[in-house]
């Protein structure tokens, strides 16, 4: 079986998301993602503002937690799958596996936030600005505790993979050698998605430790939400 087969499954999941055909839902989804970004920046100020962590913080906020429109990246992944055999010869399996894990996290984040956006549209006027209380009540109503914890578990696994595989000089050299070919064949968005992960990891002593610090605080917030805390986003 192709090492890229998992990407095909992820794309099928992505295309099943409802917001592709619903501009009102898309707008609410973008507002949820913006709220998430602002909340995370506040929660993780101490971690994110450390000099060596700046690039990884940006990667988390703009790539793994619903950043720019994922459609362009998805289209390039679809095209890439047509050349799976060639790609697998060019890139080490560890790079493919780790890149797939990052794509999985990005899509999973959109999937969870779309559920939030759908519930918000049921309960509030679409023009109503989001606030912490609306989000708290919506999280509780959806009971996303287990999926959110699964999301954090996947993040922990990604941090471990980044340290284990992506610090390899051989892996990174092989990846850099692909840049010209990637841009020539219009896979620049996909290449940049992975490249940003490499660059973000480079200043870190340990990607795993960065991720664990992040997920520890996120787990506290998930626990507070589902324990009925009226101010769960304040740590």
User: Radius of gyration over alpha carbons?
Assistant: 18 Å
| Total helical segments | 13
* Elements, N to C (H/E): HHHHHHHHHHHHH
Shape: globular
Biggest β-sheet: count, sense, barrel?
Answer: none
> pLDDT average, as an integer?
87
Supply the helix-strand structural class: mainly alpha
Distance between the termini: 46 Å
Query: Quick one: how many beta strands?
Result: 0
Q: Which spans of ≥5 residues are poorly predicted at pLDDT below 50?
A: none
**What is the helix fraction of residues, given as a range?**
over 70%
Strand content: under 5%
Can you walk me through this structure?
The protein is mostly helical and 235 residues long. The chain has 13 helices and no strands. α4 runs antiparallel to α12 and α7 runs antiparallel to α9. The chain is globular and about 50 Å long.
Q: Keyphrases for this structure?
A:
globular; mainly alpha; single chain; 235 residues
């Amino acid at each position: 079986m192709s090492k890229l087969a998992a990407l095909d499954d992820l794309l099928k999941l992505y295309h099943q998301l409802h917001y592709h055909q619903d501009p009102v839902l898309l707008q609410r989804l973008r507002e949820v993602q913006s709220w998430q970004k602002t909340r995370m920046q506040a929660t993780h100020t101490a971690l994110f503002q450390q000099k060596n962590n700046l690039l990884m913080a940006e990667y988390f906020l703009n790539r793994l937690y619903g950043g720019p429109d994922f459609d362009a990246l998805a289209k390039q992944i679809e095209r890439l799958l047509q050349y799976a055999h060639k790609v697998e010869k060019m890139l080490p399996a560890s790079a493919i596996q780790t890149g797939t894990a990052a794509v999985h996290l990005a899509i999973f984040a959109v999937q969870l936030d779309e559920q939030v956006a759908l519930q918000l549209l049921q309960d509030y006027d679409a023009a109503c600005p989001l606030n912490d209380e609306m989000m708290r009540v919506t999280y509780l109503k959806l009971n996303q505790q287990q999926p959110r914890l699964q999301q954090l578990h996947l993040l922990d696994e990604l941090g471990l993979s980044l340290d284990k595989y992506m610090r390899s000089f051989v892996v990174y050299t092989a990846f850099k050698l692909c840049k010209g070919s990637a841009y020539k064949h219009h896979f620049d968005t996909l290449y940049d998605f992975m490249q940003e992960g490499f660059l973000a990891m480079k200043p870190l002593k340990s990607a795993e430790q960065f991720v664990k610090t992040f997920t520890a605080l996120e787990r506290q917030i998930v626990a507070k939400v589902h324990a009925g805390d009226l101010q769960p986003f304040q740590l």
